[in-house]
Specification:
Number of helices: 11
Number of strands: 11
Distance between the termini: 35 Å
CATH architecture of the largest domain: Alpha-Beta Complex
CATH topology of the largest domain: inorganic pyrophosphatase (n-terminal core)
Radius of gyration: 19 Å
Order of helices and strands: HEHEEHEEHHHHHEEHEEHEEH
Shape: globular
Oligomer: single chain
């Protein structure tokens, strides 16, 4: 990993005019990684900008003080992107053009000449913290807050199994740099809009079980989204609902896509079931405890496919 970090550091120092790519339905880790890297590159005198499919309002604070730059792209870096197909609406423009890839997923399918990947890291932001340490970068409070957001959200505020002693040391060092964790954690974990609560109420009505109650499935249909008045970027946090139920080992969240089919988010007890391996059956991937994929079909068809797969695995 140290060799990969040094190679990435040398690359970043010797290039300029960066487009930093995040994945679709962006979360705290991809956005925290993107804006932290953008801030550090600008600190080094480089031109850099973050390219994202959307910016949920809860994460707008990550962009504070970052002014828009106009330049011709020379270098493309992806952060927390496991597969180029996850670039969403930016896929066609950047497909096959990524120069450097930072990621922490077990399976990475990005076609890039230089990769810096650590599947043992709690988050992509943890990898970037190591990178900036290798580079001797003195992080500002804003960049540190970006990294903290990624580490905190990808570990469920340090309660998931991917939280290690190293993760806690990274978080402590970020706090030492001036990060005020309380307001970040409040927004990320303890605050919900009225629409989010209405959405959750609707989603609970779709809850179904299989495998003797060891698998729970919820569905977010376009009808529900239209009724509540939320878009694809307003579904953050729903994937945790099925796994919160006592006795459930596999929690599955189905999100109906505009163009048909469903985006599947799987949360699993990795001691019994590997979520990434489950999703790999359908061309997806991720981590042992959290993974995703896409399955085509109607609500009923996809639900039955998932039930059958869960029962086989359990």
């Amino acid at each position: 990993m140290n060799d990969a970090l040094r190679a990435a550091a040398e690359f970043l120092l010797s290039h300029d005019n960066y487009d930093i790519l995040t994945h679709e339905f962006p979360d705290g880790d991809t956005l925290g990684s993107g804006y932290a890297l953008c801030r550090v590159l600008r600190q080094l005198g480089k031109n850099a900008r973050v390219i994202t499919t959307s910016l949920p309002k809860d994460f707008v604070f990550l962009t504070e003080g970052i002014e828009e730059q106009s330049f011709d792209t020379q270098t493309v870096v992806s952060v927390d992107v496991a597969d180029e197909k996850l670039l969403g609406c930016n896929k066609d423009k950047y497909l096959g053009k990524i120069d450097l890839c930072f990621d922490h997923h077990e399976i990475n399918k990005v076609n890039a000449p230089l990769k810096c990947i650590d599947p043992h890291a709690s988050s992509n932001c943890e990898i970037l913290f190591e990178l900036f340490t290798v580079m001797g970068i003195k992080l500002g409070k804003e960049a540190a807050a970006c990294l903290y957001t990624g580490v905190s959200t990808d570990t469920g505020c340090f309660k998931y199994s991917n939280t290690t002693s190293k993760t806690l040391r990274v978080a402590a060092e970020l706090l030492d740099l001036g990060v005020d964790a309380a307001p970040i954690n409040k927004v990320m974990f303890d605050t919900k809009s009225k629409k989010q609560l209405m959405l959750e109420r609707e989603v609970y009505d779709t809850l179904t079980f299989c495998a003797d109650g060891r698998c729970a499935i919820i569905a977010v249909t376009r009808d529900i989204m239209n009724r509540v008045g939320v878009g694809d970027d307003g579904l953050e946090g729903l994937a945790q609902i099925p796994r919160m139920i006592e006795g459930v080992e596999i929690g599955i969240t189905m999100r109906e896509k505009k163009d048909g089919g469903f985006k599947i988010s799987v949360r699993a007890n990795e001691r019994l079931v590997n979520a990434a391996q489950l999703c790999a059956r359908f061309g997806g991937g991720g981590h042992a405890a959290a993974a995703g994929c896409r399955i085509e079909g109607t609500l009923g068809e996809v639900t039955e496919i998932l039930k059958k797969t869960a029962e086989e695995l359990l």
